[in-house]
Amino acid sequence: MVIDYVLSFQLILGLIFILTLVESDPDPLHDYCVGDIKSPHDFYSNGAPCISPERTLASHFATSSLSEVGNMNQFNFNVTLANTNYLPGLNTLGLVMARIDIAVNGLVPPHSHPRASEVTILLEGSLLVGFVDTSNHLYTQQLRPGDCFVFPKGLIHFLYNTDLVNPAMAVSGLSSQNPGAQISSLAAFRSNPQIPDEVLKKGFKINGQDVVRIRRNLGG
């Protein structure tokens, strides 16, 4: 079921308003700082350098990058970002938008964003979402179209499409220009170089064959 487009627009405007209240990045020093994402740079900066305001166009503040479904990965989900690569006007504003498509029975596995809180609005389908706090308490909620859920900064969370018929689509806003994303299973078993087997065996209470099997299942 697809919710009314007017309601969707209102929800997204509300999402952007919420994000302005929870910015984690430094405040900008100018009205805007359109990111120069095309010119090569010989230095590493915390964000993109600004182009001259005289070269700023309305198109720098618009994008259609969230309009299409991307290719699904091994977990049967895809995240399409509206970041400074596609929306250079976001530079220094402390937020990113993301479209999340999850196939039937697909999963965005437990992961975290070390630099951002996340607000997710479900637009199509149904999702079971949840996060675990630092006392290992799990908070879960079944979402229907139009429902929102907040994932606090840095905490492990997931999104699971329990529907066996319909895919799900959601839009998220994150309170950092560069929120980062770390999938827990890939970080543990697909790091480069690899975490020593003994560490994984002791940390997860598994044996060497389990380590090999999990790495193989994750594409390692």
UniProtKB/TrEMBL annotation:
**What domain of life is recorded for the organism?**
Eukaryota
Q: Give yes or no: UniProt keyword Nucleotide-binding.
A: no
Xref: SMART domains: Cupin_1
Localization annotation: Secreted, Extracellular space, Apoplast
* Matches recorded under CDD domains: cupin_OxOx
Give the range the annotation lists for the signal sequence.
1-24
Matching entries from Gene3D superfamilies are given as: Jelly Rolls
Report the SUPFAM superfamilies cross-referenced here: RmlC-like cupins
Instruction: For this UniProt record, give its keywords in alphabetical order, as a comma-separated list.
Output: Apoplast, Disulfide bond, Manganese, Metal-binding, Secreted, Signal
- Residue ranges annotated for the Cupin type-1 domain, each copy included: 64-212
The yes or no answer to whether the keyword Disulfide bond is present is yes
InterPro entries, per this entry? Cupin_1, Germin, Germin_Mn-BS, RmlC-like_jellyroll, RmlC_Cupin_sf
Its chief place of residence is secreted
Q: Which family does it belong to?
A: Belongs to the germin family.
Q: What is this protein called?
A: Germin-like protein
Q: Which organism is it from?
A: Penstemon davidsonii
